[in-house]
Write a structure and sequence with these properties.
The structure is a homodimer. Chain A is an alpha/beta fold. The first copy, chain A, has eleven helices and eleven strands. The first copy, chain A, has two domains: 1-120 and 286-342, Isopropylmalate Dehydrogenase, CATH 3.40.718.10; 126-277, Isopropylmalate Dehydrogenase (3-Layer(aba) Sandwich), CATH 3.40.718.10. In chain A, α1 (15-27) crosses α10, α4 (81-90) packs parallel to α5 (103-114) and α6 (149-167) crosses α11 (318-341). Chains A and B meet through α8 and α9 of A and α8 and α9 of B.
Amino acid sequence: MKIALDAMGGDYAPDVTVAGAIEAVTEADLEVILVGDRQRIQATLSGKRYPQERISLVHASEVVGMDESPSAALRKKKDSSVRRAVELVRDGAADAVVSAGHSGVMMATSLFVLGKLPHVDRPAIAAMMPGMNSFFVVVDAGANVDCKPENLLEFGAMGNAYYQAIFDEPAPRVALLSNGEEDSKGNELTKETFGLLKHADLNFVGNIEGKDVFVGAADVIVCDGFTGNVLLKVSEGLADTIIKMLKREIASLVTGKIGYLMMKPAIRNFKKRTDYDEYGGAPLLGINGTSIVCHGRSTTRAIKNALKMASEMAKKGVHRRIAERLDALHKKNDGEKKHAKV
Amino acid sequence: MKIALDAMGGDYAPDVTVAGAIEAVTEADLEVILVGDRQRIQATLSGKRYPQERISLVHASEVVGMDESPSAALRKKKDSSVRRAVELVRDGAADAVVSAGHSGVMMATSLFVLGKLPHVDRPAIAAMMPGMNSFFVVVDAGANVDCKPENLLEFGAMGNAYYQAIFDEPAPRVALLSNGEEDSKGNELTKETFGLLKHADLNFVGNIEGKDVFVGAADVIVCDGFTGNVLLKVSEGLADTIIKMLKREIASLVTGKIGYLMMKPAIRNFKKRTDYDEYGGAPLLGINGTSIVCHGRSTTRAIKNALKMASEMAKKGVHRRIAERLDALHKKNDGEKKHAKV
């Protein structure tokens, strides 16, 4: 698979993007097209050892800054690294695209250049999160802050197809994030969504409470992008805070210091296991192609893993599987509507 | 202060409620009126040592179950322990009321029996949460799943008055939970709320992201009850999960086991510092009186701390301070409307 990487996107670009690309092509069977300022990328590559036939370069003269609006970027920067990278997918020169630049711009550009899949109203971000024993997917993780029940139904169907493809799991458990696990719980949005998900030919396991998301009660967690963002960011912030607080408590004990040294491998393992870099980026579901958004602060490891994930998704044709799932969902709904009319 | 305690409310009632009452009157300068089945309470009290003049008993023949609807409970169980306990506040026989029973029933009963403060549209639950260096308050923590911007403005004003009173802090930092810290971030609800909070004579510090709530970036965090519930429950679940995962990692190491023993006091301290029992219960803000809801699974320590908090709130007249704050807010708004007309 050939992955187009926005080499200029992200807080540490192009150093980290180039390093991530080199690690990815060294470890995995994939090629990377670095898109961006030719001179800067060549300077960053120079002196590094890597399988040269697996990394190529496409020049783009502009870079979109983190403070630019998506609409302005689309209108004014037609030769930006992110735009050129996405266009490579449209033109069949790449199988997927990855960017750690402005996530709103990456979403808008993917949507504009690649278009939506049939039936999709709102593309969504799918974030992979570490749980007690396995990873789970949150859809939408932040693309759509105000949603209708039909959007959440789509998120469930798209998340289902994505999880199925990535984990070879025939019937992922889909749950609706709510303020209690009883069927009657929820706000206006989730109460109406509940009925839709129940009749959608998904393995819908009902409402899930915030306290159960990490214990493996569901594989796909459906919510609007505002709530999804709160879920993600609270988890990130709390995990950091807990580790810091524990370290502080430990530092205040004499035996604790020795104990900490002895436990260090355990803390390292824990961090590795819950590392957000593990899945590197979050795919945009509902786009006609494979497009992955990475955190602006992505590390080399995160970029590498995002490139691997992009390759995996392209190989498995995740976006086509999403299209099939949505097609089936709409045929079923149309059939029921017809049936209801008779 | 005299606190009415619904002795029959909660998963471990009346054992835990009675034990909590005994600890509270032993440690603090307060009296408790145990409300509920006389025989069962007397049996639980019997043989225990406590300052007898500080615990009294009011009989109530009924108990509201955890699966009953608030409206049915209000209509049919007029001699329930929670109803009688709240009525003691209405009648001036108690200064505050605490219940670990069905939280919806406790809210509805407090609202029905004590009424709302002037200007209040929706009473809200204020939950105290442990952060890195201090506690912060989340309003609404679950009472109102669908809100208007005006409700969130009220939550901010009520949370402000509550935090001021409890921590003697003249200008608590009030923040709006959103999907980013920039002013422009948010969903329809929070964007409109932002403007209201900005002009409300509060120390409004703007939007706060999920990742910053635990690092002490704000004292009062305003959100709708659905999002507040997600914030609370995700934090609770994740903290549990992280401790369990760390223990599992530690158990897999030989040196880790020894390290763990050496670090145990640190982990115990951490748990104590982040213990939700520390604040025992969550007050209902906007009610004409002091009413505190506890978790159904409350421990003796949680009940004790809720009773102490109730006494503290009653002593400081928190509900009167909330009324004053809302009065000032509405006078200001009315003044501005008049001014705008001229």
